[in-house]
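The instructor's notes for this session suggest beginning with a concrete chain rather than abstract definitions. Hand out the sequence below and ask the class to guess, before any prediction is shown, which regions might be ordered.
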Amino acid sequence: MAEHLNDRESSGLADKLMQYLPARFRPGTPIVPVVRLSGVIGAVTPLRPGMTLAGVARVLERAFSHRNAKAVALVINSPGGSPVQSRQIYLRIKQLAAEKKLPVLVFVEDVAASGGYMIACAGDEIICDPSSILGSIGVVGGSFGFQEAIKRLGVERRLYTAGAHKAMLDPFLPENPDDVAKLKAIQREIHQIFIALVKDSRGGRLRGTDDTLFTGEYWAGESAVALGLADSIGDLRSTLRARYGEKVLTPVIAQPTGLLSGLLGRKSPGAGQLSALETMAGLPDELISAVETRAIWAKFGF
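After discussion, reveal the predicted structure:
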């Protein structure tokens, strides 16, 4: 009898102590870590990198390693960018989800287009707002032609190469049809990789022909759901509460910031030199970066 009373007293004491623990540490508390993936993917300019695997890997690993996690939520707001970085981030999300056996819910904010949509395909479900923009499953590249401008300025172009195609698509030389054909062949190859990834990820949920889905066109939320590019209309808070209960916790997992993180090595080797270069570049670099970023977002009306 005394042993039984001691067990009950111990249990009651444990229950009382549990009340003082932060909610995230209490057994049974549903937790869905949230990771925000925002911005242009890859390098906007050499001195202004956008979203890359190196930049988000640690955050993703922390989210998928979170104690008591029921799922991981990704909030995506990206107009795309580098196909390589997009696919690497996609693959890392899929790898972590398989290792930790956690479902991935993707919530689209303004845009998940091109590489942004590629990353969204890593989710088990894609949930968007009616006004979200999704799609743009294609490949784009562009340049300028300055040969006439430098001629008028009296500038002589001097270029020395080893290799017949080393100066391919040089903006200071007249456009060569063979160079354009080569570029388009590379774009078609990358496009097919993108298409295969979407088909593999979305499977039978896709509704529409290849000529509709994979032309580089993009759609608002309701149309994206109708085509199977997204699964439903909703928002993060309402969706997670409906699935995991009113007490679900949604900690945002972000990169460490502040002086301490910098002292502990957040900056990569050479960051000091880069910072000095940025200072030297000054306004021109800032202006180019801002214009390029703005142009990418403006394509989707933002």
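Then share the key points. Strands lie at 34-38, 43-45, 48-49, 72-78, 104-113, 125-128, 133-135, 218-220, 232-233. Residues 177-202 form the longest helix (26 residues).
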